[in-house]
Amino acid sequence: MSYHSRLKKDLAGAAAEGLLTPEQADRVWERSYSKRAFASFKAVHFIGAAAGLFVALGLILVVASNWDKIGAIAKMGAFLLLFWGAAEACLRLESKPAAAVPLETLWFFMPVLGIGLYAQIFNLSGDPVRPYLLWAALSAPLAVLSKRPLAAHLTAILLFTTLYWGTLGSSNMLSLGAPRINEAVQPLWHWALALGVLGAGVAVYPGKKTGLPLGASAVWLFMMLVADTAIKLRSSALILLAGMSLAVLWLAWGERGDGEKPVLPLTVWTGAVYAMTFFWHYKTHDYGGYGAETTSAGGGLALLLFAGALATVLLRKQRVLPEGQTEDYLAKGLLAGSMLCAFLLFDATEAAAKLLAVIANLILAAFGAACIVSGAKNSDEKLINRGVAVITLTAVTRFIDLFGGLLKSGVAFIVTGLAFGVLAYLVNKGRKALIESVKK
Amino acid sequence: MNKLRIALGVQLLFFAAWGGWLLSSRNSDSPEFYLETVPVDPRDLISGTYVALTYDISTPRAGNCSFRDKFGPVFVKLENRGKTANTEAGPVPVYEAADCSDNPPQEPGWAAATMRHGFGGMSAAYGIEKFFLNENDPRKDAASGSVIAKVKIGHGRKLVLLDLVKKI
User: Fold this and answer.
1) Closest among A430, A439, A421, A335 to A375, alpha carbons compared
2) What's the whole-number average pLDDT of chain A?
3) For B74, what's the count of Cα atoms within 13 Å in the CB-facing half-sphere?
4) Of A182, A239, A353, B67, which has the highest C-beta tally within 10 A?
5) Could you write out the three-class secondary structure of chain A?
């Protein structure tokens, strides 16, 4: 059940019990509901948007099927007329979303329709990425100027999709990977173009929400560091350091725009620490063969990311736990620790990797416990649930991962259950003490 | 609203200008000639039906061409060296790559291309690697060596693909 469905149900329940008047319940729900990303969208608008998309695609196919029967100038003229008609109707019906939304969708797709049409008429071919970049460039004014966030969302998706697809390919104007293993890297202007597309994708994303575009950028950069590019990393320690630093940077700087906690970046960071716990099984490898050398640019960038993330942890307000001096120290320590323990891998011994795994387990345990305690203190049920989930997942994984046998696993479950019991007792005791101190 | 109308005007102007440029390039006063080509048959929901074409001139070897191993723009000299093909309209000249240059002389016959990596190593792309046709057109299933491409050199020394002609 979604948040808003639950809220509506809770408000209806509160109104039924007389805690709120039905009018107040309605107003609270309306206030919360209107702050969503697609606040003004109703089901009919989504259906309308789909209608616009289907009409655009259908037109392409209709034109293609009648290819031989229509002259070049007639096709281009019809296209320009249709383009103008759709856009003009969208502008005139601005106040009627049921019509304006599908028309704006059609307007957004008109440039690519035109590019495809011209390619058919004149038998054009060439770089596969270029039409999509041209489409994004032509649609950017609509994305920036439209009152609705629809075109901005679509343009951002288009730019990021093109960025991922293009940079991971090997023979287009955005390619950053070597055409073949260890072969010459792509020209420098490919990087400039890729960074331009990345910047445009972030800039065009609507509102002040930096969370998703920043996350998409971080994931893209990590992929470039791992792939056979000019910034490739081939050291486990540097890959881990860069990955953890990016996770911390995303967590620190990604804003949702609604004041809510950064759930996705926090989950990714937790997942990254969780993945580190598997370094218990790490074996020293000879990484020769596949693009064996870390480039100086890649190594420098990884260290730069680490420095940036560390400075962010030290100087910026932490967003892992609720505010509080103890929470701040703990959260900053956990974040810094999650990055610093990557340095253990520079030794590249199995003992160092085991120590890294132990530290990762401790970070998860400390994070989980801190969530439970802090959640109890702040009456934040979701935070408590998060803490319990992290500790349970870590414990269950370790039982399966390390102990294996029924007897050992059984004993470990009992020990963990008792630890949970003690934790629950301490949390309850702390909560009562807090209530008492407030009463005094 | 006015700004959006200006944006719309820019979009329409772009397509009108681009269409005009492509039309004038196709109708430019330059000789038409033919190229050996090998078609294959990919399809694309967005683009419609087309045959992908590879050319002998895509891997030029003559003159300075064999030393090219860098990405980026290049100019290829195309000329007839006596090769012909029989079509319904009679024998026609088939052009071949004769030389490559970064800065070609101001004389006709030089076509702009881009060196890029393909499956078989570096190849020259001319922007004529797709020929769009009706899905019922028999040329869609043309066997290797059974068709030749009719082209001309248009604006900016770019090759313009005019037709795919069956050999007899």
Assistant:
1) A430
2) 84
3) 28
4) A353
5) CCHHHHHHHHHHHHHHCCCCCHHHHHHHHHHHHCCCCCCCCCHHHHHHHHHHHHHHHHHHHHHHHCHHHCCHHHHHHHHHHHHHHHHHHHHHCCCCHHHHHHHHHHHHHHHHHHHHHHHHHHCCCCCCCHHHHHHHHHHHHHHHHCCCCHHHHHHHHHHHHHHHHHHHCCCCCCCCCCCCCCCCCCCHHHHHHHHHHHHHHHHHCCCCCCHHHHHHHHHHHHHHHHCCCCCCCCCHHHHHHHHHHHHHHHHHHCCCCCCCCCHHHHHHHHHHHHHHHHHHHCCCCCCCCCCCCCCHHHHHHHHHHHHHHHHHHHHCCCCCCCCCHHHHHHHHHHHHHHHHHHHHHHHCCHHHHHHHHHHHHHHHHHHHHHHHHHHHHCCCHHHHHHHHHHHHHHHHHHHHHHHCCHHHHHHHHHHHHHHHHHHHHHHHHHHHHHHHHHHC
For A164-189, how does the pLDDT look when each residue is reduced to its tens digit (9 = 90+)?
Answer: 999 988 778 888 887 666 566 678 88
How far is residue A221's CA from residue A247's CA, in Å, rounded to a whole number?
A: 11
Nearest-CA distance B125 → chain A (Å) = 7
| Residues B140, B133 contacting (CB under 8 angstroms) | yes
Of the two residues A400 and A99, the one the predictor is more confident about is: A99
Residue with tokens 């998309």: A53
- Contact across the interface for A186 and B71, Cβ inside 8 Å: yes
> Between these two residues, A219 and A394, which has the higher pLDDT value?
A219
- pLDDT, average across residues A270-283: 88
Find out whether B34 and B151 touch, Cβ atoms under 8 Å.
yes
pLDDT at residue A155 in the model: 95
Q: How far apart are CA A244 and CA A272, in angstroms?
A: 7
CA–CA gap between residue A163 and residue A154 (Å, rounded): 14
Flag if A123 and B128 touch (Cβ within 8 Å): yes
Contacts of B71 in chain A (CB under 8 A): 186-187
pLDDT tens, position by position, A326-349: 888 899 999 999 999 888 888 678
A79 touches chain B (CB under 8 A): yes
Do A126 and B114 count as a contact with CB atoms less than 8 A apart?
yes
Residues A98, A44: contact at Cβ < 8 Å? yes
Task: Spell out, as residue ranges, where chain B has pLDDT lower than 70.
Answer: 1, 41-48, 67-69, 118-120
Q: What is the pLDDT of residue A15?
A: 87
Q: Can you give the pLDDT at residue B42?
A: 66
pTM of this structure = 0.79
The pLDDT, as a whole number, for residue A337 is 93
